[in-house]
Design a protein that fits this description.
By secondary structure, this protein is α+β, with helices and mostly antiparallel strands. It has 15 helices and four strands.
Length: 308
């Protein structure tokens, strides 16, 4: 059904000068489809990938509303690419998550593309998307990744949406340089990030109303495992980690089960609140327990849900 929405949108914006309402309508329709599919019990991992792929197409349609002067035939080109990063880069886009993108420039010449970049990002906001964006040249990528492990991590999950693939290859080659965050240094930096993150959750209110992303045992901890595995062994999937002996088969199954469970709750929470809410506040817990088919028995449904 998402394909049908995109087909209709592509035809409509090709003949209309009032494109913003058309984009908004398509995005709203897509969210209703995702809600129906989630409530019908379709696998959440498939749903977040479908949502990511749908947004890929939305951003591509928006991007192509503008003429990008890349001097493609010249020796000194000014190529530009649109890159998905973060959860969007992983193809794990929740219904109301921010859409994080990086506009990658071949050279330090933002002025060449400044007007288009401003118009493109404004269009995304106008059609109702919550977009986090950065603009970096290839040189910026290396410099900023070297200075900040968070930037480095985001770029490790980069996925190209539009542009010459050679730009992405150049960026990846820079990030793979052996002196840039060697695996041991990267591990220590991510471990320190985790300690700081966990310390912020060391309060009663955070234990009773945990954050699905950042609390101990949350999605960020699972992602930290995959980031470290990729930096050291070059593998991303839990199945590959098991194949390489990084995880046992039992650990792999536990990791996959935990990730799916947390994503299901987070997906349901986004639908319930209509926002990028990740904290299990008291006011949401009972409704989520009912929606996820927990029922009162020896224990209340909400207690089963929160202890599960």
């Amino acid at each position: 059904m998402l394909d049908q929405i995109l087909t209709r949108l592509t035809g409509e914006i090709g003949i209309s000068t009032h494109i913003i309402p058309l984009f908004k309508s398509a995005i709203q329709d897509s969210r209703e489809v995702l809600r129906e599919q989630f409530e019908a019990g379709e696998p959440v991992l498939e749903l977040v990938r479908r949502h990511s792929d749908f947004m890929d197409s939305i951003l591509q349609l928006a991007w192509h509303r503008f003429s990008w002067n890349e001097n493609a035939q010249a020796w000194r080109k000014s190529r530009v690419a649109l890159i998905a990063v973060g959860g969007y880069g992983r193809r794990e886009l929740l219904p109301n998550s921010d859409i994080d993108v990086m506009i990658l420039l071949e050279r330090q010449n933002q002025n060449t593309h400044r007007a288009n970049i401003q118009s493109f990002t404004t269009l995304l906001w106008d059609i109702g998307l919550e977009v986090g964006h950065s603009v970096r040249s290839l040189t910026d990528c290396r410099t900023q990744a070297a200075a900040d492990v968070t930037v480095m991590t985001a770029m490790l999950e980069a996925r190209q949406l539009i542009g010459d693939s050679e730009l992405m290859e150049k960026m990846t080659k820079q990030l793979n340089h052996r002196r840039l965050w060697p695996s041991k240094v990267f591990f220590e930096a991510k471990r320190q990030e985790q300690r700081i993150r966990h310390s912020k959750s060391d309060h009663t209110e955070y234990s009773l109303e945990p954050n699905l992303k950042t609390s101990p045992g949350g999605l960020r901890d699972i992602q930290t495992i995959t980031w470290i595995a990729f930096r050291h062994w070059g593998v991303r999937q839990s199945s590959d980690m098991a194949e390489h002996g990084i995880l046992t088969e039992s650990e792999k199954n536990d990791l996959e089960s935990a990730k799916q469970h947390l994503l299901e709750i987070r997906f349901a929470l986004h639908l319930l609140t209509g926002s990028d809410e990740n904290r299990l506040l008291f006011e949401h817990q009972q409704k989520l327990a009912q929606q996820l088919d927990f029922r009162d028995g020896d224990q209340l449904a909400v207690e089963q849900f929160m202890q599960g």
